[in-house]
Amino acid sequence: MAQSMRFVIVVTMLLYAPFCLAFKSTSGGGYLYPQFYDRSCPKAKEIVKSIVAKAVAKEARMAASLLRLHFHDCFVKGCDASILLDSSGSIISEKGSIPNQNSARGFEVIDEVKSALEKACPLTVSCADIMAIIARDSTVISGGPSWEVPLGRRDSRGASLSGSNNNIPAPNNTFQTILTKFKLKGLDIVDLVALSGSHTIGDARCTTFRQRLYNQTGNGLADFSLDQSYASQLRSRCPRSGGDQNLFFLDFVTPTKFDNSYFKNLLASKGLLNSDQVLVTKNQQSMELVKQYAENMELFFQQFAKSMVKMGNISPLTGSWGEIRKNCRKINS
Length: 333
Fold this sequence. Notes:
By secondary structure, the protein is mostly helical. 46% of the residues lie in helices and 3% in strands. α8 (189-196) packs across α14 (297-311) and α11 crosses α13 (284-295).
């Protein structure tokens, strides 16, 4: 009996090990670990959670928008809050890039969180860490999994418009291009499929998937991999021209609930974006993962949490690198 219990304990420790580890930074020589602010700003997580909960209660879509900001930040120069910087001096903001223009949103929520934290603990909590915590809280509030967020990131003193344009996976990218962009950031095909599951919440604009409805391969025809009755519904509000900014649920079944309906939709040929549907049409391994997550939501939740921790560790600035911004939209003078 004692031997059996020891085995259970060891297995349990292995399962949860990814959420307990400290991650060594590639920049600055420091470490990321969940308890980073326990002494310097003990109420930091509580403050963040309260403001995010209020914002999502006011507008359910905000959860997906805040989660997306963390993705779009990490895929450029690493998780350093560069996406939050406005243009000024030598800085050209990433907010004007193709992936972010007219779509990246939620900046005012981050401003509110930063303002509250500056009152509680001046120059202590970085904007980069705020974004990482907010991404977790947005997921949990929407019904998704929780995880321990490794903390200790510092904020960049610059942005990269070209990096934002080139590094962030696009809705019309091929499967191989998307996978390559993930691999360049140290993420693999399992991370790609699991993190794509974030499309279980949120919206997409007509302009991001119009080609699937009218001219997928340049022959003037709809995408053959898109369910035709679903395509007809989409065409009613996404015409050949006009309506670019019209919004559509990424997961039309449970659009504001973080669950595994997204993967079930893919198997029914009802993925909204080309970058969604290619997970089942262009690669055998990704298709098998989609099937697994469609059948087992707990498995998806576990992997999503692991992949979010992994993504949050892309090239963070720590130690003496970067800074702690007073205002997330501009570097300290």
